[in-house]
Amino acid sequence: MIDVILSGKPHPVRVLWTNCNPVIGLEDTELTIDAMKNLDLLIVPDIFASLTAHLADYILPVTTHLESNAISEYTVSI
């Protein structure tokens, strides 16, 4: 996905909604940061302000297991 974001091939990716932390989770941090900065819109739902969230246009709060009936699933609070 990072290569597609940066190259625009086969189709341009302009928006990404990610509920993970690709800046830390992927192997090339600098390339991943460049890709995140290349997006028109980055949305990150997260409990904490992760490194990816610091690059995001919008950070959406999520509930923890203490605020939800689910044990391990995070849900977006909108």
Task: Outline the structure in words.
The radius of gyration is 14 Å and the shape is elongated. It has 78 residues and is an alpha/beta fold. The protein has one domain: Rossmann fold, CATH 3.40.50. It contains four helices and four strands, in the order αβααβαββ. It has a four-stranded mixed beta sheet.
Chain-averaged pLDDT = 87
* Share in β-strands: 15-25%
Low-confidence stretches: none
- End-to-end Cα distance, whole Å, is 27 Å
Keywords:
four-stranded mixed beta sheet, 32% helix, alpha/beta, Rossmann fold, 78 residues
Quick recap:
The protein is α/β, with parallel strands linked by helices and 78 residues long.
Chart the SSEs and their pairings.
Elements: H1 2-7, E1 15-17, H2 22-25, H3 29-38, E2 41-46, H4 51-55, E3 58-63, E4 75-76
